[in-house]
């Protein structure tokens, strides 16, 4: 039986130094990952850099607005207007959804683009980004829900990407993003397409958002009545707060980025975006530059009709020297959003055009027919222009009967309806460019009329332009007014007589 000396050392377990070092290293790495996750979740700039992007100054301004929207309990709508190629979709429709999901993995995100294909492409990119940076973000995707346009997190949150116009059933979102609802200028200028997009926004997209949900509406400003324009008018009407970030390609007064007037966007790096903008400004027309690049659908000086063509006048020439013509753009449905417009134009002996009178109102047929009769009796026009399609809607017989009763007689010339309003207005545009259009400076309707001319074809309303365009088609057959004849000069103090001399005598005849 072994024996031990009382003071002999006891055996101790072996100590693995390498395992201890590795454990400390692992703890440090985990702490670093936790710090990184905290930083990425608290700063979208940090997240953008981690994802491989390098935000420029205007991207940082956009990021600041997105972060504010996510954190602000008072404002739920952000509108973003930036020129093509400036990176707005990358940060708003790619990086922001991923960052939002990292902060709120249990919430739902709904994104939409003008086509289902584009929406799915962004959905795929965002999904792949989430998978690639799963460790840094601390969010995992569910293995049974990873489709390109619809995927979910293990915490229960979902992401859904759709095309504008597509029905959205069975999904409720905490964050909704619309990225370029119009695929082209043609779509944005089509009243039918604008109505379709608005109906979808009101009836599908908005109804799929949860109470307190946040919205980002982002696109270039093609038209004054585009989706953003309608949203702004809607929110202003109900006094609901919203935020707008509008970054023009070239800085003007009060630039939101603090640029000097004339400075181009993103002009301080190797990417070459500023140089590209300079070339585009030289290549495109005024209206395209104003809307697509400056985020102002209508340039200050006008687009289709130029401001210098509109000439305020203190009055009009004597009625007896004018040839007078009229035109009407009829609205068949009262209160349906469209106006009926009657316009009266006089042509002086030099061929100059004067707007003599205007009537514009959302009214039923009885009211505007009575107003038309009054104008015909007041101005005694030679001809009156109108569209064939509108008269065929049974309004013609009503106007005939009313005119006979009121003794308001004029020859009504009808022109076929053509879909392209700019083509219809070409005749009056050509005359205005050469001779201008004189408008009474004190007319109560002058400012609205001028504003519609200068905003055409990007304005909300174009009924007055339609009416003056009909006058333009009529004037292709019109003739100038007649200058009054000067009275005969008196001879030998006897006005109206002339002397005839024969032989030595004279006769006054």
UniProtKB/TrEMBL annotation:
Domain Terminase large subunit gp17-like C-terminal: residue ranges: 329-468
Residue numbers spanned by region Disordered: 1-20, 481-509
Q: What keywords sit in the KW lines? A: Viral release from host cell
- One Pfam match, given by its short name, reads Terminase_6C
Q: Tell me the superkingdom of the source.
A: Bacteria
UniProt cross-references to InterPro entries, sorted A to Z: Phage_terminase_lsu-like_C, Terminase_6C
The record's section on Gene3D superfamilies has: 3.30.420.240
The protein here is known as: Phage terminase large subunit
Q: Which organism is it from?
A: Methylobacterium longum
- Upper taxonomic lineage: Bacteria, Pseudomonadati, Pseudomonadota, Alphaproteobacteria, Hyphomicrobiales
Q: Which gene encodes it?
A: terL
């Amino acid at each position: 039986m072994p024996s031990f000396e009382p003071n002999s050392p006891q055996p101790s377990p072996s100590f693995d130094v390498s395992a201890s070092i590795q454990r400390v290293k692992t703890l440090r790495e985990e702490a670093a990952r936790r710090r990184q996750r905290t930083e990425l979740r608290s700063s979208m700039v940090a997240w953008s850099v981690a994802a491989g992007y390098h935000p420029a100054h205007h991207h940082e301004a956009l990021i600041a607005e997105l972060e504010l929207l996510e954190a602000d309990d008072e404002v739920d709508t952000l509108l973003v207007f930036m020129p093509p190629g400036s990176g707005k979709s990358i940060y708003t429709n790619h990086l922001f959804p991923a960052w939002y999901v990292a902060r709120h993995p249990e919430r739902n995100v709904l994104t939409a683009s003008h086509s289902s294909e584009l929406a799915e492409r962004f959905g795929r990119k965002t999904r792949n980004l989430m998978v690639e940076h799963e460790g840094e973000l601390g969010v995992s995707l569910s293995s049974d829900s990873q489709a390109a346009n619809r995927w979910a997190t293990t915490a229960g949150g979902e992401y859904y990407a759709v095309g504008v116009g597509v029905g959205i059933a069975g999904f409720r979102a905490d964050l909704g993003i619309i990225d370029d609802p119009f695929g082209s200028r043609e779509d944005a200028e089509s009243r039918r397409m604008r109505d379709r997009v608005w109906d979808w926004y009101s009836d599908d997209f908005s109804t799929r958002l949860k109470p307190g949900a946040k919205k980002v509406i982002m696109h270039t400003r093609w038209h004054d009545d585009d989706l953003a324009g309608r949203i702004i008018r809607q929110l202003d009407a109900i006094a609901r707060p919203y935020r707008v970030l509008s970054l023009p390609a070239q800085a003007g007064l009060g630039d939101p980025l603090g640029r000097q007037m004339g400075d181009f966007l993103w002009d301080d790096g190797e990417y070459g975006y500023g140089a590209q903008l300079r070339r585009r400004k030289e290549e495109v027309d005024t209206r395209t530059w104003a809307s697509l690049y400056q985020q102002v659908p209508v340039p200050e000086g006008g687009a289709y009709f130029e401001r210098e063509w509109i000439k305020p006048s203190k009055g009009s020439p004597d009625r007896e020297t004018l040839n007078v013509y009229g035109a009407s753009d009829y609205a068949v449905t009262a209160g349906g959003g469209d106006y009926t417009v009657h316009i009266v134009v006089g042509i002086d002996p030099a061929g100059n055009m004067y707007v003599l009178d205007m009537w514009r109102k959302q009214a039923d047929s009885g009211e505007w027919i009575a107003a038309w009769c009054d104008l015909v009796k007041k101005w005694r026009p030679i001809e009156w222009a109108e569209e064939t399609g509108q008269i065929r809607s049974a309004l013609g017989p009503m106007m005939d009967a009313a005119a006979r009763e009121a003794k308001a007689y004029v020859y009504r010339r009808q022109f076929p309806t053509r879909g392209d309003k700019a083509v219809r207005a070409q005749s009056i545009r050509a005359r205005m460019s050469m001779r201008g259009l004189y408008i009474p400076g004190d007319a109560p309707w002058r400012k609205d009329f001028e504003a519609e001319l200068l905003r055409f074809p990007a304005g909300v309303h174009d009924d007055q332009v339609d009416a003056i365009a009909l006058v333009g088609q009529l004037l292709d057959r019109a003739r100038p007014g007649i200058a009054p004849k000067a009275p005969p000069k008196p001879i030998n103090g006897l006005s109206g007589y002339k002397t005839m001399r024969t032989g030595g005598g004279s006769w006054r005849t």
